[in-house]
Amino acid sequence: MAKTYNFQIIFFFLLLVSVPVVAQNSSSDSITGWKAGVARINITPEGSLWMGGYASRTHSSEGKLTGLWAKALVLEDVKGQKAVLVTMDLVGISKDMSDHIRNHLLKAYNLSRGQIILNASHTHSGPALKGNLTDIYPMDSLQWDNIDRYCVNLENMVVKVVGKAMHSMVPVMLSAGNGVTRFQVNRRSNNEQTLTEQIELKGPNDYAVPVLKVVGKRGKLLAVAFGYACHGTVLNGYQWSGDYMGYAQLALEKAHPGATALFFQGAAGDQNPLPRRSVPLAIQYGNELACAVERVLSEDIKPLAPVLKTSYAEIDLQLENTPSEEKLLQLSKTSSSFEQRWAIGLLGKYRTGEPIKTTYPYPMEVWRLGNQVIVALGGEPTIEYAIKLKQLVGHDSFILGYSNDVMAYIPTAEIVKEGGYEGESSQIAYGLPSKWNPDIEKKIFQEIIKLAGELGVSSSEQPRKRVENKP
């Protein structure tokens, strides 16, 4: 443990000395129109629970490396329009959990779904959650009861932290920019086992580090929301941890006492942190990401005019044909454990006449903060979504995945046809009856273009017009 601690100290020292910290240079005279509130709540389970993300674990958690947090950033523009970003150190939340939280926020604070982004960091060192990857966990009924109780409490904590942020609103200056760091590796294009033998890595990739900077009175950093598109899978042990994303937040909060750092996950469906599988690597990647954020904070990044607009939609994405009853019966006898549970569950639906999904209501939303475009997608979108969306709605856009409902991987049409884990077999892990129809990509892009257009953001498929950064 001493070696790990010393390693972290060394990297934190490098973080401080390598990047000049000038985040406090903004003048309070520039604070016009925006208000913001920020809050956090500890969501680390009090006892031992089954952990989320991996089918290979054989028992519940044992202690912690770092705490797990839900954090809320509430923004309000000059006309009183509000929106809230909630970031959570979790593998992903289900539609049911998301709906419960958003319904509570509508009732308590009159926040519509378009005004709420619930983003999961996708750490694989947090708790398992009901409705998310449930077939991969070999839990008994008592263990599931413990998870259910945690989830009910979690929903209440998320609503509570949003309320706390709502009641802490102060005048701020808002600005945005993009940094860069390069520890993500496209796992479909590169073999992890032979990584050390490769002389070059293959893409596609998007190395952007989007940063939203919130500065209060006297130029003090109040909050920084930042993202990256990379799986939270450096660690695979039995201790609670925010993984590299958690270490990045800790580093930034240590460098800026009193500020809150919020991490949002990007289009990380096919992006892994490689190499991996050690605490020192998680700390290293966390500090690399924090350094990228610090560089953006230190630059003269664009202030955002106090104009907030949001749009939201759920579209029905088509699922391909469900396996036959005969095929499911075969899988229930010969396949691996979680495939067996999946096949047995579908067989039960066949035999009782329960409807089997042929479509899924997929959530997506677009925000505009001044002239900063933010796109939030549900599920685990592969990196091509970030690349293409930036081509469509602006190369500086922030692209979030894992937002509002993490129901499955979201592959491109090409990946659906290629198959593999992201294109086909992962649907079993998530409990869906079959893979997506290849038209998934076209439908998502069409809807995002429509939502962006509602906010005055033209796409590359329409005549481009500059969105002025003014009220």
What distinguishing features does this structure have?
alpha+beta, 4-stranded mixed sheet, 471 residues, disordered N terminus, globular, 9-stranded mixed sheet, 11 helices
Overview of this protein structure:
The chain has 471 residues and is of the alpha+beta class. The chain contains eleven helices and 17 strands. The protein has helices at residues 2-18, 95-109, 141-166, 243-255, 279-298, 325-334, 337-352, 383-393, 413-418, 420-430, 440-454, and strands at 34-42, 69-76, 82-88, 116-120, 170-180, 184-186, 208-215, 221-228, 260-265, 271-273, 302-303, 308-318, 359-369, 372-377, 380-381, 398-400, 409-410. The strands form four sheets. Strands 1, 2, 3, 4, 5, 7, 8, 9 and 11 form a nine-stranded mixed sheet that branches. It has a four-stranded mixed sheet with strand order 12-13-14-16, with helices on one face. A two-stranded antiparallel ribbon has the order 6-10. A hairpin with a 2-residue loop joins strand 13 (359-369) and strand 14. Helix 1 runs parallel beside helix 5 (279-298), helix 6 packs antiparallel against helix 7 (337-352) and helix 8 runs parallel beside helix 11 (440-454). It starts with a helix and ends in a 17-residue tail after the last helix. The model is unreliable at 1-5, 16-29 and 462-471 (pLDDT under 50).
